[in-house]
């Protein structure tokens, strides 16, 4: 044992260091080779299925290209056929616009009339009811209804478009139109035929309304006929799902 030790001591230190380094390098190389996956070597027999797969995929790709060209040709033919139905498409678009106008979804502008309704400036008598001297939702409803009956095509109250589902109700000292709280004075705008006011003045219901509210309680009702009246589009949501036509008047029996 002592002879071995003496021999080791006679070996230079640089040789010992070099040997350790080479051993460590060999260990690392072996570990790297062990971690790599085995390389795949294709034999002639293994290449045959790969070539067949490539050929199959190429055939499928060619078939898809042909299908794409066929679909493009069919689309082009349909587009050319559609040119002949342009008149039908335009007719449908016109009908759609008329439906939107009837529903209040399109802003309108044209000749019409603007009413302004204000509370009475009179002093309420001791035995009187103060609410009779204030503009109510019922006053606005009556005026709007009379405008519709005499030929108005579109109506708005203080910029709120009135449509079939619009509710006009009293809320404290103001009225609620659609979902907007409106305060007096109230401007009721309408567009329609040029003789709209003449038609309105000839209505017995409108004359009775003016007499009962203006002459009796002093409600101020003024109007103007500007060259053009703007009626905005309805800004709310249309949530009507179901509707049906109500029963009409029974036909009179034939003599």
Question: Looking at the structure, what is the overall shape?
Answer: elongated
The count of strands amounts to 10
Tally of DSSP helical segments: 7
Q: Please compute the radius of gyration using only Cα atoms.
A: 45 Å
Mean pLDDT: 76
Report how far apart the termini are.
Answer: 147 Å
- Low-confidence runs (pLDDT<50, min 5 residues)? 39-44, 248-255
Main sheet specs: 5 strands, antiparallel
Q: What sequence of helices (H) and strands (E) makes up the elements?
A: HHHHEEHEEEEEEHHEE
Strands in their spatial order, largest beta sheet: 4-3-8-2-9
Helicity, in percent?
40-55%
Structural class by helix and strand composition:
alpha+beta
Strand fraction: 15-25%
Question: Which descriptors apply to this entry?
Answer:
five-stranded antiparallel sheet, 10 strands, disordered C terminus, single chain, alpha+beta
Please provide a written account of the structure.
Helices cover 48% and strands 16% of the residues. The protein is built from seven helices and ten strands. The protein has helices spanning 2-10, 13-35, 44-82, 86-103, 137-149, 196-201, 204-217, and strands at residues 108-110, 112-118, 154-157, 160-162, 168-171, 174-177, 180-182, 186-191, 220-224, 229-231. The strands form three sheets. It has a five-stranded antiparallel beta sheet, with helices on one face. A three-stranded antiparallel beta sheet has the order 5-6-7, with helices on one face. It has a two-stranded antiparallel ribbon with strand order 1-10. A hairpin with a 2-residue loop joins strand 3 and strand 4 (160-162). Helix 5 packs antiparallel against helix 7 (204-217). The longest helix is centred in the first third of the chain and has 39 residues, at 44-82. The model is unreliable at 39-44 and 248-255 (pLDDT under 50).
């Amino acid at each position: 044992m002592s002879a071995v030790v003496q021999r080791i001591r006679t070996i230079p230190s640089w040789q010992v260091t070099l040997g350790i380094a080479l051993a460590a390098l060999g260990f690392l190389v072996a570990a790297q080779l062990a971690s790599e996956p085995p390389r795949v070597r294709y034999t002639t027999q293994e290449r045959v299925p790969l070539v067949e797969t490539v050929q199959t995929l190429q055939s499928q790709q060619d078939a898809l290209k042909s299908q794409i060209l066929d679909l493009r040709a069919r689309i082009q033919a349909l587009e050319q056929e559609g040119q002949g139905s342009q008149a039908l498409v335009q007719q449908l678009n016109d009908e759609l616009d008329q439906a939107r106008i009837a529903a209040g979804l399109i802003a309108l502008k044209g000749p019409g009339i603007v009413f302004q309704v204000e509370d009475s400036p009179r002093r309420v008598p001791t035995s009187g009811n103060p609410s009779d001297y204030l503009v109510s939702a019922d006053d606005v409803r009556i005026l709007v209804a009379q405008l519709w009956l005499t030929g108005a095509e579109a109506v708005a109250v203080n910029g709120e478009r009135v449509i079939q589902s619009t509710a006009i109700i009293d809320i404290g000292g103001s009225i609620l139109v659609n979902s907007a709280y409106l305060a007096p004075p109230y401007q009721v705008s309408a567009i329609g035929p040029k003789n709209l006011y003449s038609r309105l003045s000839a209505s017995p219901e409108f004359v009775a309304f003016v007499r009962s509210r203006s002459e009796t309680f002093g409600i101020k009702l003024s109007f103007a006929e500007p060259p053009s009246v703007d009626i905005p589009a309805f800004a709310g949501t249309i949530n009507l799902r179901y509707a049906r036509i109500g029963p009409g008047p029974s036909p009179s029996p034939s003599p």
